[in-house]
Amino acid sequence: MTEDFFPISFTYHGVAYEGRISPEQKKEDATVASYHVVLNNVFFGFLSKDGKHWLVNEQRPQELVELVGSCIDNYQLKKQPA
Predict the structure, then answer these.
(1) Is the Cβ–Cβ distance between 9 and 18 less than 8 Å?
(2) Using CA of residue 71, residue 47, residue 82, residue 8, what is the dihedral sign?
(3) Residue 3 · residue 22 · CB < 8 Å
(4) Which of 81, 71, 29, 21 is CA-nearest to residue 46?
(5) DSSP per residue, 2-61
(6) What is the DSSP code (8-state) at residue 77?
(7) Residue 45: phi, psi to the nearest 5?
(8) In terms of Cα–Cα distance, which of 62, 63, 79 is closest to 21?
(9) CB 38 within 8 A of CB 7
(10) Interatomic CA distance for residues 57 and 46, integer angstroms
């Protein structure tokens, strides 16, 4: 995809994380289907949302997956026109 990434940063269990999220795949209606996530220069996985919950294609703690997903949700809310 051609859309640029957006940065994220947060602390989880005392560890500071910085990373970037890039929209990866789009659905037929042009909404984003999955996101490519890198944290602390390491590939975290591809995140997608299934209803209320975030899923990742790698084995990761669900609490951390939801935290990264909330960063995506917050970014999307900021992008929406007022």
Answers:
(1) yes
(2) positive
(3) yes
(4) 21
(5) -SPPEEEEEEETTEEEEEEEEEEEE-TTS-EEEEEEEETTEEEEEEEEETTEEEESS---
(6) H
(7) 145, 180
(8) 79
(9) no
(10) 6
Greatest alpha-carbon span in the chain: 40
For the record, the structure tokens of 11 come out as 């602390």
pTM: 0.87
* C-alpha to C-alpha distance for 63 and 22, rounded to whole angstroms: 20
pLDDT at 31: 79
Q: Which two tokens stand for residue 9?
A: 């940063």
Tell me the mean pLDDT per 10 residues along the chain, length 82.
Answer: 79 96 86 93 96 94 96 88 70
Torsion of CA 52, 11, 39, 3, to 10 degrees: 60
Q: What integer pLDDT is reported at residue 82 of this predicted model? A: 65
Which pLDDT score, from 0 to 100, does residue 3 have? 57
